[in-house]
Design goal:
By secondary structure, the protein is mainly alpha-helical. It is built from six helices and no strands. α3 runs antiparallel to α4 and α4 packs antiparallel against α5.
Amino acid sequence: MKLKFTLFIFISAFLLLLNSCKNNSEEQLIPEEIIKPNNSIYGNVDFKFPELSENAKAEISHWGAFGDFDAEVKTINGNTIDEIKNKTKLLVSHIDSLTKKIPDTLYTSSIYSRVMVVKTRTSLLKQEVSKGHIDSIKIQEYFDEMNISVKNLYSQINEKFQKDAIDLQRIDNEKQELEDQKRFLDSVYKAELQDQKK
């Protein structure tokens, strides 16, 4: 009985040793398969972001990280995964700064919400490209969503300055109209005074 028990333990130990050696040789093969470089290009190289108006550019120059964000976002399309990983890391950092320091002249609920959408879309893209398994379809989907969110932000900034220009024009027109009415009333009053003197 003792011999059978010893033989059983010996055979069990031998089988465990064989199994662990087999697992080690399989584990060594897996990393070689994963390390294949991915030289595919992602994003839409033909995507054009709206140009900011001159008034918008003047105000944006006071928005610290916007210049860096703009430079990165306009060059992220058409890169490999490794380049996109670096660029999304920088973009997320820049967009974090943008959310914390929106200038008063640009702070509207519309612009703030667009910045937050850009932050979310950029973070999702960064998260997807950082995964071990590359899902090309998801990456392209997140790229498209990020591009559209940035386009919407730029359009919203331009719209704000167009609206401000319209509001200023309206105020100027109202002032001019009041001045014209005052001049007319003054001329009528002077004419009445001259009539009374006669």
